[in-house]
Amino acid sequence: MSKKTRKCNCDFAEDTCKKEPEFEQLRTQIHDLQEQIQQLTELVRTDALTGLYNHRYFREALHREVERTQRTGADCCLVLIDLDHFKLVNDTWGHEVGNLALKHAANLIRFTIRPMDLPCRYGGEEFALLFPSTPLITSKQIAERIRDILEKTPLECENHSIKLTASFGIASYSANSLLTEDQLIEKADQQLYLAKNQGRNQVCAAISEQNHYPQVSQEEKDLLNNLFDNNQ
Ligand SMILES: Nc1nc2c(ncn2[C@@H]2O[C@H](COP(=O)(O)OP(=O)(O)OP(=O)(O)O)[C@@H](O)[C@H]2O)c(=O)[nH]1
Prior knowledge:
With 232 residues, the chain is of the alpha+beta class. Helices cover 51% and strands 16% of the residues.
């Protein structure tokens, strides 16, 4: 190895350099630490039961997607999913089977969406999906596909077929939206509530605000939001 590319600056060849074993050990330690950091990062953002992103990561990802929409102008969508009558599954089959049902639903969701989408466990028997750069109409189609697959793919457990359905609420966010992140969640939640009230096992979506407001700057939005808060 030439002096230019060798790892140690001493005058010995690499095979006779006394420091080389120390460097090798250090390199191994650094590699192990990098792997541990990677594993911990995965653990911190993952829901232990379902393997989906957890609620904490969902909030981070939502913030990122809202900022990306502001920057690129491409709409993103938030889908909230709540399994129907899930208490009945727990009460009938027990909590462990309830957990299997949650994993089953999470897997079906994960394998139905696109790699760019972000599937999260929002909490309990509720999931949140973030669809980056996706208009409302496409989000509705994907949600409808998940709803259909869930309904048609019961959990096979202990010689029983346990049918699962879910209700969906969707809200879209566009660059000229006045919504805060919390208001976007609330909007999707209202649609979810509507889907439950209308009989469950269905997808409801909020009409996009896109054409309801003129283009406004971030400062104008903050001002309007402050005025709105002060008038509450
Ligand atoms: N097995 C299991 N059950 C959970 C978990 N988290 C929440 N649940 C259960 O999910 C059920 C939610 O029940 P409810 O909020 O009454 O709603 P629901 O029965 O799904 O009815 P609707 O949402 O109105 O269709 C409760 O029985 C919770 O105990 C979990 O991690 N594992």
